[in-house]
Amino acid sequence: MDRGARGRQRSVLVERAAAVTEIFFFQKVITHYRIPLFRRLHQQYGWKILSAAQMPSSSGLKLVHDEPYLHLIPIRFLRNDIRYPLTSCSIIRSLPHAAGLVAEFSLYFPATYAFAASRRRGRLRRLAFHTHGPNLTRDPGRMTARASDAVRLRLFHAADIVATYTKAGAEWINQAAPRVRTVAVENTIDVSGPRQARAQVTAPQRAGRPQMLFCGRLNAERNAPLLLDVFDRVAERFPQARLVVIGSGEDLPALQRGRALRHDDERIVILDRIYDEHLLAPWFAGSDVFVMPGPGGLSINHALAYDLPVVAFHSGSRGAFHGPEIEYVVEGETGSLVDRAAGAAGLAAAVMAIAGDTDRLTALRERIRPFVDDRLQIETMVRNFGVVDRALRA
Questions:
Q1: Coil, strand, or helix at residue 78?
Q2: Domains held by the chain: number
Q3: CA 129 from chain center: how many Å?
Q4: Alpha-carbon gap, residue 82 to 387, rounded angstroms
Q5: Is residue 203 domain-shared with residue 228, that is, in the same domain?
Q6: Are residues 209 and 344 in the same domain?
Q7: Residue 207 gets which letter from DSSP?
Q8: Do 321 and 210 reside in the same domain of the chain?
Q9: Are residues 370 and 383 in the same domain?
Q10: Contact assessment for residue 214 and residue 245, using Cβ atoms and an 8 Å cutoff
Q11: Which residues pair with 271 in a beta bridge?
Q12: CB 187 within 8 A of CB 381
């Protein structure tokens, strides 16, 4: 065998040795809305999901243990907080040598730094990060936000590909670090569930018109008590208006006190948290507008799956620090965005502009469905993750 042939043979052997045979998707916690995605990624690409075999005792979170794609590993937690696993290196050691890793990205998460370092040293054969993109929790002009984004970009350079939740995240990375390979996966829930539940509704829960709906956690960040001020303004013009709030959390007493101060106004309906889609569907089907007085995430996708327009504050310095899904609230197409300085009056004006005009509301609902079909189908997300699969197996 001549020298050239031996060189080509060595190249083939090196290429085979470098080939990724399995891909694992690392998640801090298996949340139920991700289950349809995990199933499809396993069916389509053979991906397995890495997660904790045991959760912190006080987390209140549940794991799903009976799925064939799950690869549960022991993870110790720092300060009993799911964001801070202490044994990042044990996660890497649990992977087969010829494995590629897709990792949920967070600067709060020590494993993020361990994964990047392992990829640089060659311990991880391939690495992808799944991320929002820029820091979405601070005003972009502040020093802390710029410092945070600089660290993010440095870590992204260690990955073979970065999968962003939405197109805006990929565009930000491409502008700031053109050498980082990106793909926008379009983060979503399985919208077929809400759609099927909506199709089975025979008696929508409508108590008045317009009917405003909020469904989500009632923590301080969500600012749910502001909904009462929004309702007051809408009810001045539309006495038959209704506000429906579904959820539980620390702000629930404030909502209940606010309702009591309004003489227990029956037009304000406050319900405990509901997870069963078939119990939620009649309330979504009977409502006109989904109103978010604080930051939103996949609750936006949930509302749009019911063809329900979303009214929210702008993101960032002009409003709340939303998740990347705020990109799916498009003025005149899927809802309306309001400057935070306008407060409850601004949200109320947007609600009345949409729900107070039957023709406009109907046209908006008709535009939401093709928008969801185009961008928010879970099949779209799985197909976009195929770019990640090919990058890691290349």
A1: helix
A2: 2
A3: 15
A4: 29
A5: yes
A6: yes
A7: -
A8: yes
A9: no
A10: yes
A11: 246
A12: yes
Residue 307, domain extent: 192-375
| DSSP codes of every residue in 101-157 | EEEE--TT-HHHHHHHHHHHHTSSSEEEEEE-SS--SS-TTSHHHHHHHHHHHHHHT
> DSSP code of 291?
E
Written as tens digits, the pLDDT of the chain (394 aa) is 555 555 444 443 344 446 788 999 987 665 566 888 999 999 999 999 887 766 655 444 455 556 788 887 776 666 556 555 666 677 788 888 889 999 999 888 888 999 999 999 988 999 999 999 888 776 666 788 889 899 999 999 999 999 999 999 999 999 999 999 999 999 999 999 999 999 999 999 998 899 999 999 888 888 899 999 999 999 999 999 999 999 998 999 999 999 999 999 999 999 998 989 999 999 999 999 999 998 888 999 999 999 999 999 987 665 567 888 899 999 999 999 999 889 999 999 999 999 988 999 999 999 999 999 999 999 999 999 999 999 999 8
371 and 304, same structural domain? yes
Is 215 in the same domain as 335?
A: yes
**Residue 50 β-bridge partners:** 26, 71
* Distance, CA of 192 to CA of 356 (rounded, Å): 29
Instruction: Please give the structure tokens belonging to residue 75.
Output: 């993870």
Residues 197 and 176 in one domain: no
Asked, as a colleague might, if the bond just before 210 is cis with ω within 30 of 0, I would say: yes
Nearest to 341 by CA among 322, 321, 318: 318
Separation of alpha carbons 68 and 356, rounded Å:
49
How far is Cα of residue 375 from the mean position of the Cα atoms in its chain? 14
CA distance 167 to 173: 10
Assess whether 371 and 229 both reside in one domain.
yes
CATH number of the domain enclosing 341: 3.40.50.2000
**HSE (side-chain half, CA atoms, 13 Å) at 186:** 20
Q: How far apart are CA 263 and CA 201, in angstroms?
A: 32
How far apart CA 363 and CA 349 sit, in angstroms, is 18
Of 220, 219, 277, 274, the residue nearest 244 (C-alpha): 274
The widest CA-to-CA distance across the chain, in whole angstroms, is 93
- What CA–CA distance (Å, rounded) separates 342 from 338? 7
Amino acid at 273: R
What is this structure's pTM? 0.83
